[in-house]
Amino acid sequence: MYFRRIRDMREDADLTQCQIAEYLGIAQTVYSRYERGYQTMPLHLLMRLADYYHVSLDYLTGRTDCKNCQPKAKKISD
Q: Is the pTM of this model over 0.85?
């Protein structure tokens, strides 16, 4: 799930929860709940993290293992 990946991304960048929480404009305790999966992170915060780490939302949320892949559009059946 995405909370594991956001923790891994933060740790890989040698950042603290406080630093990321400050960047997002939230309390460290709230960010900690996101990482542990106790609270769902709002989309606008996920988008900010994806921009910060230069990765796709699909990567951040665990939908793909490709950091910057663009998903192919699906055709809608008539």
A: no
